[in-house]
């Protein structure tokens, strides 16, 4: 009998689930992707500045996985026919903005946590004596603490504030003292169960990496991430439902009934299995009636709001020879990171094209600082970028603001255990996917969606 499967959420995790379902399910399976917004892609969205494609969301993805092979995002791009469209950024160093100067990020750190304190070269002054061997591992098996708590206890406050905070802030817009070690740095969490010093744990975690020396760290799709979304939609062969939120899911015998659309004029759909690939709060709301024990831990997750600013400066505008920089929270700026887009992706503009800069504004707990008009945010970003780069910038020829309200999940300690508990409490035929559970970043979201599709496929084979 022909099966129908609902994927609720049209971001990259939901689309990856739909493509995997198309690969593993019988050819006549109907796959429906429900997206309450008016476009697919979630936080993957390509914009333009003076005719140049510039991302309004995620700019790139990891090129390789922990095993040294291609990352799930690269494999996914190949699956949907974009293997020949993969491009890599130019080899340019990045910096930290500290005390009005741009200083190179020290080499050999693991998300800002150094394994060799001598390489810090004055960027941060560690408390070297605190990282002594006490005769036992740093963490008990399965123990989870905040990244900042571990690093602060071993290296001192300055390493956290000048290195780890800006590195984690660039990815999660969060603070090291609130982010889960196991959720954000799982390799370090594992080695901390056996190593007696933080230096030893960092070096052991780095040794686990099988990335080939000289291999590009990041990749992107030439022409923009929106191409990846379009190719995924084509590969999935799914029916797409836009603009109708799913308000309720109910178990009806061996199937699921979905209630869609506005309350005064609802419609329903019945399917054989459901994949939820939406943020935590809507996921918890939809789970509350069918899996309350799964809804509770999922609903605890908080999010940070950020805004992205894109600016096209006149050709020839001088910028440092860097791919960009990160800003420690202690500097007090609204700008937390910047990419010198033209230097990082020189193939897009050429030597005589506009000088494009992209900046990220806002951190967890700073939502009120983003409650300004677009022109006000643009003015602040333009001024701060000039101050941080060490020179006044000329007026932008073109610019835009992209706001991501509640865009980045904040994984507090214990997050992986809460996710395991939620998945264990799900009824058969219902699976979860997305950044709310498994981590930010395109490779992780792709893998999360594919895992959910495999779970649903196995259920339907046995049903």
Automatic annotation (TrEMBL):
Its EC number is 1.3.3.15. Keywords: Cytoplasm, FAD, Flavoprotein, Heme biosynthesis, Oxidoreductase. GO terms for cellular component: cytoplasm. Pfam families: Amino_oxidase. InterPro entries: Amino_oxidase (IPR002937), FAD/NAD-bd_sf (IPR036188), Protoporphyrinogen_oxidase (IPR004572), Zeta_carotene_desat/Oxidored (IPR050464). The keyword Flavoprotein applies. Its cofactor is FAD. Residues 12-456 form the Amine oxidase domain. The keyword Oxidoreductase applies. SUPFAM superfamilies: FAD-linked reductases, C-terminal domain, FAD/NAD(P)-binding domain. One of its GO terms (biological process) is heme biosynthetic process. It catalyses: coproporphyrinogen III + 3 O2 = coproporphyrin III + 3 H2O2. It is found in: Cytoplasm. GO terms for molecular function: oxygen-dependent protoporphyrinogen oxidase activity. Pathway: Porphyrin-containing compound metabolism; protoheme biosynthesis. Belongs to the protoporphyrinogen/coproporphyrinogen oxidase family. Coproporphyrinogen III oxidase subfamily. Involved in coproporphyrin-dependent heme b biosynthesis. Catalyzes the oxidation of coproporphyrinogen III to coproporphyrin III. NCBIfam families: proto_IX_ox (TIGR00562). This is Coproporphyrinogen III oxidase. It comes from Actinoplanes regularis. The lineage of its organism: Bacteria, Bacillati, Actinomycetota, Actinomycetes, Micromonosporales.
């Amino acid at each position: 009998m022909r099966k129908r499967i609902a994927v609720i959420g049209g971001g990259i995790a939901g689309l990856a689930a739909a493509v995997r379902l198309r690969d593993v399910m019988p050819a006549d399976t109907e796959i429906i992707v429900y997206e309450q917004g008016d476009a697919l892609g979630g936080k993957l969205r390509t914009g333009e500045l003076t005719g140049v494609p510039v991302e309004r969301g995620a700019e790139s993805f990891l090129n390789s996985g922990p095993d040294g092979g291609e990352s799930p995002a690269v494999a996914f791009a190949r699956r949907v026919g974009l293997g020949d469209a993969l491009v890599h950024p130019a080899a340019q160093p990045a910096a930290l903005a500290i005390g009005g100067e741009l200083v190179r990020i020290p080499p050999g750190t693991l998300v800002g946590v150094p394994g060799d304190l001598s390489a810090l070269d004055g960027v941060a002054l560690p408390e070297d004596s605190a990282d002594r061997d006490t005769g036992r591992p740093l963490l008990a098996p399965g123990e989870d603490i905040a990244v900042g708590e571990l690093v602060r206890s071993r290296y001192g406050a300055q390493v956290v504030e000048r290195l780890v905070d800006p590195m984690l802030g660039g990815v999660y817009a969060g603070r090291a003292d609130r982010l889960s070690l196991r959720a954000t740095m799982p390799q370090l969490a594992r080695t901390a169960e056996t190593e007696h010093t933080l230096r030893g744990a960092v070096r052991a975690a780095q040794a686990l990496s099988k990335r080939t020396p000289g291999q590009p760290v990041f990749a992107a799709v030439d022409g923009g991430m929106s191409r990846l979304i379009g190719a995924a939609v084509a590969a999935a062969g799914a029916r797409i439902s836009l603009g109708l939120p799913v308000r309720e899911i109910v178990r009806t015998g061996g199937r699921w009934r979905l209630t869609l659309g506005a309350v005064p004029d609802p419609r329903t759909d019945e399917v054989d299995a459901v994949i939820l690939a939406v943020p935590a709060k809507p996921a918890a709301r939809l789970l509350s009636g069918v899996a309350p024990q799964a809804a509770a831990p999922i609903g605890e997750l908080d999010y940070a709001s950020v805004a992205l600013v894109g600016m096209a400066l006149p050709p020839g505008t001088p910028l440092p020879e860097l791919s960009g920089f990160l800003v420690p929270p202690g500097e007090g700026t609204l700008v937390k990171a910047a990419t010198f887009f033209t230097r990082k992706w020189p193939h897009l503009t050429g030597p005589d094209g506009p000088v494009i800069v992209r900046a990220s504004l806002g951190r967890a707990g700073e939502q009120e600082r983003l409650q300004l008009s677009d022109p006000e945010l643009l003015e602040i970003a333009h001024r701060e970028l000039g101050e941080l780069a060490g020179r006044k910038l000329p007026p932008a020829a073109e610019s835009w603001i992209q706001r991501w309200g509640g865009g980045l999940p904040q994984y507090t300690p214990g997050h992986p255990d809460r996710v395991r508990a939620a998945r264990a409490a799900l009824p058969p035929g219902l699976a979860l996917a997305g950044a709310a559970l498994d981590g930010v970043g395109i490779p992780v979201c792709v893998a999360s969606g594919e895992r959910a599709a495999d779970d649903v496929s196995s259920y339907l084979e046995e049903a």
